[in-house]
Design a protein that fits this description.
Order of helices and strands: HEEHEHEHEHEEHEHEHEHHEHHHEEE
Number of domains: 1
Strand order of the largest sheet: 1-12-13-14
CATH architecture: Alpha-Beta Barrel
Distance between the termini: 22 Å
Radius of gyration: 20 Å
Strand content: 15-25%
Number of helices: 13
Shape: globular
Helix content: 25-40%
Low-confidence stretches: none
Mean pLDDT: 97
CATH topology: TIM Barrel
CATH class: Alpha Beta
Number of strands: 14
CATH superfamily: Metal-dependent hydrolases
């Protein structure tokens, strides 16, 4: 706490920090969010997304490039940068797309984009050919950047929309097999060994991916990975016939969840990101088959993980802060700048999406009891969230 400038806080909050009623953490960093602007501002905007992030204790987020226009060249990216400069209340770092229009056919203007983006990703779509990914890795390495990879083999999807497991079989749903994730992970790790490119695996959800990444790290490959709160705390047994349980990758088996948790505890999984993916209420109201993929998570991530992992003594509070604040910044070279967030860890409440600042309200954790409420968040010396509205 001593390394943070508490003098910027209102007296009532500062005094409770000093007497131990509130807890001060380094502000969180999420390397995988969707703020939907430009192009899809009815789902989320830079302003609403950054306000939601601030309420969740975040002062740095990395936005994915599935936008309109896609940031595959500097002129397209500039539209997003202009909105960030005007509307963001925290630090927003965009990813550039790996391929033109996220189509996987031609590489984007990686060399010229690299000075303006945090890294490169075709999130939402996997790179389908080894040749394209290898070519991308060489150029990204030369540019001194990093690839954040959405690993998904389209040839194995078979029209699936939830995990290919017991729930899908019992309820007659088309399933997404784990192989569609781990086979591209396996391919890309081999390419990393050949190219030396810095490589980060998005939203790890299955046991095979965790095992492959663990072995790759032992071999000295320059790889890190993230998972999300829902893959740590939920599995396919939690699924209901509701769009709020539909995300990509899907909630997998209990064995997969246990493997992801083991990856958290042994250090294979480097960080926790939310994959905050807001949609309109209409887009999420069409059941498992027809609803859009994606849930929101910025405002619930810390309370969920503090309640589910720290209070249950699965991991320490220090470990959780490393996963949410320290490790993401270290991997993506994002400065802390003295940013901090203040929490009332004793506050218990029920998650109610009506309270969210995000435009997106869809979460499988709705109605769950959690502990930990954000009191204030400070970014670049400014209060960007104050629970008491002062």
């Amino acid at each position: 706490m001593n390394c943070f400038d508490l003098t910027v806080l209102p007296e009532n909050i500062k005094n409770k920090c000093l007497d131990g009623s509130y807890t001060v953490f380094p502000a969180f960093c999420d390397v995988h969010v969707h703020f939907r602007e430009p192009g899809f501002s009815y789902k989320e905007t830079i302003k609403s997304g950054s306000l939601a992030a601030a309420k969740g204790g975040y002062t740095a987020v990395c936005t994915m490039p599935n936008l309109n226009p896609v940031p595959d060249c500097v002129s397209n990216l500039q539209k997003q940068l202009d909105i960030i400069k005007k509307d963001a209340v925290i630090n927003v770092y965009p990813f550039g797309s790996l391929t033109v229009n996220l189509e996987g056919e031609k590489l984007s203007d990686i060399k010229n984009l690299s000075d303006y983006v945090i890294g490169f990703s075709d999130d939402g779509k996997g790179i389908q050919t080894a040749g394209m990914m290898k070519e991308a890795m060489f150029i990204v390495k030369e540019s001194g950047s990093i690839i954040s990879a959405h690993c998904e083999d389209n040839s194995l999807l078979e029209g699936g929309y939830i995990h290919k497991g017991a729930y899908a079989e019992k309820h007659g749903h088309r399933g997404i097999c784990s192989e569609s994730e781990w086979k591209p992970v396996e391919r890309d790790l081999e390419l990393c060994a050949q190219t030396g490119c810095a490589y980060h695996v998005c939203h790890v959800s299955c046991k095979e991916s965790v095992s492959l990444i663990r072995q790759a790290k032992k071999s000295g490959i320059n790889v890190t990975c993230e998972t999300a709160p829902h893959y740590i705390l939920l599995d396919e047994n939690a699924v209901k016939e509701d769009g709020k349980f539909k995300m990509n990758p899907p909630l997998r088996s209990e064995k997969d969840r246990e493997a992801v948790l083991e990856g958290i505890t042994d250090g294979t999984v480097d960080m926790i990101a939310t994959d905050h993916a807001p949609h309109s209420a209409e887009e999420k109201s069409k059941g498992l088959e027809k609803s859009a993929f994606g849930i929101v998570g910025l405002e619930t991530a810390f309370p969920l993980l503090y309640t589910g992992l720290v209070k249950t003594k699965i991991i320490s509070l220090e470990k959780l802060i490393n996963l949410m604040a320290v490790n993401p910044r270290k991997r993506f070279n994002i400065p802390q700048n003295g940013d901090f967030t203040v929490w009332d860890l004793s506050a218990g409440y029920v998650i109610n999406p009506c309270d969210f600042l995000s435009k997106g309200k869809s979460t499988p954790f709705e109605g769950g009891k959690v502990y930990g409420k954000c009191v204030a968040t400070v970014c670049n010396g400014n209060i960007v969230y104050n629970r008491y509205g002062e």
